[in-house]
Structure formats: C-alpha cells, structure tokens
C-alpha cells in the first residue's frame, strides 16, 4: 500500500466492485483518501475511525460507509492484542449513479448515493446486512453484483448516523496530504500528552497562525476542537470496557490534566456526565 496521496485501490480492468479482507494486529494507519466509496464491516477488533472532521469508535458489528475522497484512517486498539478483521467493498459512486440512470427501478439507490456526502455509520449493523457483508468474499462475480444491489437497497431503508458534517469538495493535493498525515500520526500517537500549538505547527513547517487556518479549512474545526474530540472518544472506549476504573484515571489516560475540564468537555460532546455514560453502557441503553 502506498503511503502518499492519493491512495489508489488496486483493481483489474474487469472489476467494478472490489472486495477486500483486512486481518491484522495493526491496520493500515496512514491518513488517506480515494475516489471510491468504501463500505466497511467490522468483524472483530476495536479502535477509532478518523474521517474528514470527525472521530468515531468502532467495534465488532459496526458498518461504515465512507464517501468518495474523504480523508480517513482506521486505528485499531493494539493494546488489547485482538486481531482486527474487516471486510470492505470499494466502488465508484459516479459510475454506479450513471449506470443506474437508465433504470427507474433503482432510483432509490441512485438518490442514496447522490446524498452520501456525509457518509454513514450503523452501530450495530442489522443482522441481515452483517450476514451479507460476510458472504461477499466467497461469491462469484455475478452473485457478488446482485448481492451488492441488495445491500445498497437495504442501506437506503435503515436508520443511520452521519459520519461527518463536513464534505470535502475535492481531492486534496499531495503536499496537503503529507502535512495532514503527519499531523494525524503525531496526534493519534501523542494525544495523551500535552500538545502545544507551536509543537504541532512546527511539525507542519508552518507558523501557528498559518497552521490554524490550514487545519480549519481542511477539517471545518480548530485543531484543539479535534484534539478534545479525540480524547473524549478515547475516554468513551475506556468507559465501555467496564473495568470500574476511576473517572480521574480515565481522564488522565485520555490526555486531560483537570478532571473538572474533562467532565465539562465530556458533557458538551456526549450530553451526559462520564459516570452516567458508564452506567448507560453497563445496562446497554446507549
């Protein structure tokens, strides 16, 4: 896999739908984008998905639809020692929309793909969709295509959560991609520590003011908004593990040095206190 922008999905001249199986203790962890729409089902493993301006936890049974040209990366939790297993489909949304234009019966799918700018998350994925995703690797080409149509049709009718509120207008340049990748790599590996604006601006070879503009234009949020969201999502993962770890320790492990600031930011983003979130995870109401 290439480590530069743009990321190219390998495919032959005779394929319009690519099925990819990823099984690894460490997933491909470079921020990347590609022109294909990506549908990914998580069979096993836990971690975080970074996509455009948003961060989402992922776990077994989750399904994500990532729009064309949305910078993203899946970062699995290697501390758990669990192999990540994902099944992904890649296809050109524009090609499918053009092909389906001649079939009025497929109008709902065409509309769905037209409106896919924000992507979507199903957590957990309905059982029938999960079974479909797990069957793709063993299907012959014709059955794969008909199953693909069925999958898209079902996706038009399920309840879903948008992945992002920010739609990338175009493919970002190689230099921009290199900068964003370096920023994401540094932050995802160091978010539990103090990170200053000067440090992250130096990493991007920019002045603090220029870096702030650069980051905001490409993520629709400030750098520190992004950093806080990453820390809170990590805290949610720790709370979901249910090991009765003190809230103060979770705050520290997530990069917060003040428990009052942690509680305030957690409530702003999740609409509830960390303790309530933990209890809701215990009883399965969240």
Model description:
With 286 residues, the protein is α+β, with helices and mostly antiparallel strands. It folds into two domains: 139 residues, Jelly Rolls (Sandwich); 93 residues, Arc Repressor Mutant, subunit A (Orthogonal Bundle), CATH 1.10.10. 43% of the residues lie in helices and 16% in strands. It is built from eleven helices and eight strands. The protein is globular. The N terminus is likely disordered.
Give the spatial strand order of the biggest sheet: 1-7-2-5-8
- How is the main sheet built? 5 strands, antiparallel
**Structural domain count:** 2
**CATH topology (level 3) name of the largest domain:** Jelly Rolls
Range of helix content? 40-55%
Order of helices and strands: EEEEEEEHHEHHHHHHHHH
What is the H level of CATH, i.e. the homologous superfamily of the largest domain?
Jelly Rolls
Layout of secondary structure:
Blueprint: E1 17-24, E2 37-44, E3 47-51, E4 54-58, E5 63-66, E6 72-76, E7 84-91, H1 93-100, H2 107-114, E8 120-122, H3 127-135, H4 141-155, H5 174-190, H6 197-203, H7 208-219, H8 223-240, H9 247-253, H10 259-270, H11 274-283
Antiparallel strand pairs: 1-7, 2-5, 2-7, 3-4, 3-6, 5-8
Helix pairs in contact: 1-2, 6-7
């Amino acid at each position: 896999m290439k480590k530069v922008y743009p990321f190219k999905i390998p495919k032959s001249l005779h394929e319009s739908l690519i099925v990819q199986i990823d099984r690894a203790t460490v997933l491909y962890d470079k921020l990347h984008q590609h022109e294909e729409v990506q549908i990914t089902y998580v069979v096993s493993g836990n971690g975080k998905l970074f996509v455009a301006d948003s961060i989402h936890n992922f776990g077994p049974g989750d399904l994500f639809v990532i729009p064309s040209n949305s910078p993203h990366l899946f970062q699995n939790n290697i501390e758990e020692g669990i192999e990540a297993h994902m099944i992904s489909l890649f296809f050109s949304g524009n090609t499918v929309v053009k092909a389906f234009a001649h079939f009025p019966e497929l109008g709902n799918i065409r509309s769905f793909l037209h409106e896919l700018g924000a992507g979507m998350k199903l957590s957990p994925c309905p059982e029938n969709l999960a079974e479909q995703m797990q069957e793709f690797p063993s299907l012959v080409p014709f059955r794969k295509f008909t199953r693909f149509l069925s999958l898209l049709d079902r996706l038009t009718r399920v309840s879903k959560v948008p992945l992002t509120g920010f739609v990338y207008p175009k493919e970002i340049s190689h230099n921009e991609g290199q900068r964003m990748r370096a920023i994401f790599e540094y932050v995802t590996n160091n978010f539990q520590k103090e990170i200053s604006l000067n440090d992250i601006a130096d990493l991007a070879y920019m002045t603090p003011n220029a870096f702030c503009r650069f980051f905001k234009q490409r993520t629709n949020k400030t750098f520190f908004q992004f950093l806080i969201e990453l820390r809170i999502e990590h805290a949610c993962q720790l709370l979901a593990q249910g090991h009765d770890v003190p809230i103060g320790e979770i705050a520290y492990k997530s990069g917060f040095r003040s428990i009052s600031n942690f509680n305030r930011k957690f409530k702003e983003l999740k609409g509830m206190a960390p303790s309530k979130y933990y209890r809701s995870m215990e009883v399965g109401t969240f």
